[in-house]
Please model this.
Amino acid sequence: MNIPYTVEVRPDTGLANGKLGIWLFLASEVMLFGALFSSYIILRTGSIHWPQGELNVWLGMVNTFILIGSSVTMVMAWASLKLNDWGKHRLYLILTFALAGIFLVNKYIEYADHITRGEYPSHSTFVAMYFTLTGLHGLHILGGMVVMAYFIGPGKKMYQTNREQFVNRIEYTGLYWHFVDLVWIFLFPVLYLL
Amino acid sequence: MDNVATLGTAAHEHAHDHAHEELGFWRKYVFSQDHKVIGIQYAFTSLLFLLFGFGLMMVMRYQLAYPGSPIPLIGNWLGSANAPGGIMLPEFYNQLGAMHGTIMVFLGVVPLAVGGFGNFVMPLQIGAPDMAFPKLNMMSYWVYFVGGVVMLVSFFMTGGAAQSGWTSYPPLAVISPGQTMWLIGMIFLITSSLLGSVNFIVTIVQLRARGLTWMRLPFFVWAQFVTSFLLLLAFPPLEAAGVMQLMDRVAGTSFFMPSGLVVSNQVATSLTGVATGAVGSGGGNPLLWQHLFWFLAHPEVYVLILPAMGIVSEVIANNTRKPLWGYRALVYSVGFLGFMSFIVWAHHMFMTGMGTTMSAFFQTTTMIISIPSVVILTALLLSLWGASIRFTTPMLFALAFLPMFGIGGLTGLPLGLAPSDIHLHDTYYVIGHFHYVVAPGTIFALFAGIYYWFPKATGRQMNELLGRIHFWGSFVCINLVFAPMLIQGLGGMNRRLYDGGMQYALNADLLKWNVVIGMAAWTLGLFQLPFIINFIMSIKWGKPVDNNPWEATTLEWSAPSPPGHGNFLTEPVVYRGPYEYSVPGAAQDFTPQFEPERA
Amino acid sequence: MHSEADDIKKHVRTYWMIGGALYVFTVITVAVNQIHLALPFAVTLALIVASMKGYMVASVFMHLNHEKKWIYGSLLLTVAFFIVLMSIPLFTVMDSIGTDIVQEVPAGSAHPGAGAPAH
Model:
């Protein structure tokens, strides 16, 4: 039994199932992070003192560069597939994976720094917010890395057996990855700069 | 493929067709990716949870009817930490209360209405071979299952299960035991319903059969569609809030813990916070939780009720042998209802010191949202007009739904207006109100659905006599349970007293109802026995039926009973609207959607 | 198929340019931060820059500049409810019964984040 429209698009909606599925998932993610941002605003406006400049802006900026870079390589990984350039696709996908890894290493350095200074989440509401937001975002990075690792490794077989669907899957992975990047684009000023 | 699904092809023939696809036991019945098996898994699990949640309530009701006396039968099994000598401790009563609510809503009704009926019926009704993402579907069941296990296990942890109500308001929820497991369980359940709702929406948008345009969708599918959007967009804020409350408890943060909170002459902190020396920084906002919680939990009310309305519409159309009255009005109403349900949440919070501007806003939206509900109920009621009704068991339950949901809805109006809500909010009136919506409302509709689609799922019909005993017994008892609560509540009786409100001892008129409610609840329990017996026996010994025993018009009845893997024998094509009953000039009193036009 | 490949090649150039623009915007937002503007200005500016960056990612990398109506529809609904969600802070402070709790920051106290309970 085959589920219709897994690969080909349904004529009246112009979509394949996965495309709509990943966007709906991202819609729910918008609400997840939205609730946390909303809580951030409530807690910050309700506080009498809110620390500024507690975080290392330069580390944060480097991480922003890394994540934006990984977004570019991700979209290139998909575009190279569309151009039937398997070699370039491999290169860009592995590069994306590596950049994601470097991002997490950076994050680890930051976390370790806070812990050694005794700044646990219970230290202040700001630090609590910082750990919760970046922690959840970090989990999303990790999730993305697992998916990429799958397509770098065992998942790549599908390129031979069902090329079209493989391209679609890379596109959906990309959509997710850009969303994770997008969240960071807002997290960076909110936590590091303001 | 231009063929049309035809009736009367035996199911075994179909099974034979697919013999080469045979899977092993585990893949076929346990880790199945077939939407029908998953739907049945959901249904079984959630029915067991409903029974368990009902059991918790029956125990609570004993304590309320006869405060301080040992609980008969099971009293000695509850453990000395919960009920020494069989006499219930207040903490245990709180656990039962919190877990009754949690289990009934998140593990019982929603999984049955959405996971069970949605999964089983919806793809059949839209003529799809399966859900759009079968693996995801399997995952959402198993994530739900783990969430349920976590909730059950929490009873056996030190400190017991959560005891801060199903709403888990902080600071109480942050400082009382049991809550951590509740939060972990909830995160599983939320994840499960997110996976499910993505799957549902994609399936409905993408996998509708040829000819099945939006205005030809059965109303049940519309209800599931709107419900899925509610789950998709309203649940994530609670997930965020759950993560923050978990942080408050485990990492000692203070998202919801205000500074300077003193309980029993001690500065209150989260339990784990004390253990690790991390006492939290204070400065949190308990109201934030309430906002995030009700941002989910009000749409959740509609998640509870919309699938029920969908089921009732199907059953009513089928048993009145008439088209539904005002199909388009029903569809627009359900969409509007879903949209509005996102902007009424703060009517649960009139007691929090909300000012008049804000409460005026939420009172207005609350009154507005009652309009589509009334439109739906009216349309269903008018559908009965002039019909020659078949009083089958599913129809009895569907008919009972109408006045029961009506009472539930009307008793809600005083709660949607701040001046009356402030007096009624913490009384039994609220309990009576929302149980009228959910218990004799939604759960009756779910029973109607079980009796109605049982033949499709098993190929056999449930026993009508046992069904009638089940219906009439339940109908009488459930009203004796909830109507007195409205009386008690109007009398001002507080709803959170574990001794059944002994401080109202001078007002015997109020207290005597506790015994009545208790008796009615236990009798209600007895009247579920015919159902359980009927359900189990009919699987094996029920009257065998063909594809379309109810002579219904929607697509699921063109598939074999039970449908094989892939559902339909030939590609289904839809020629007309969903409720073409008693069409003038037609040979029979139903013209199925899948029957081709005759020249 | 040929024209699609051409299209993609054109897009590739856009992708690199957008990537560069995102870097530039990041530098700008950090640079502005170094001037230490008054908070309301800083917040507005940072959010505008972040929104522009977000817009670029969503419209180009995620192809939202040409998508199908079902995706726009779902996202529109999400945006509507997102706005409701973001107005919760307003709801908590806008209109409450009783007086505001005025709490002085104790002199010399640098305890970060020790907020007063919100209204």
Notes: Helices of chain C lie at 2-35, 39-61, 69-86, 88-94.
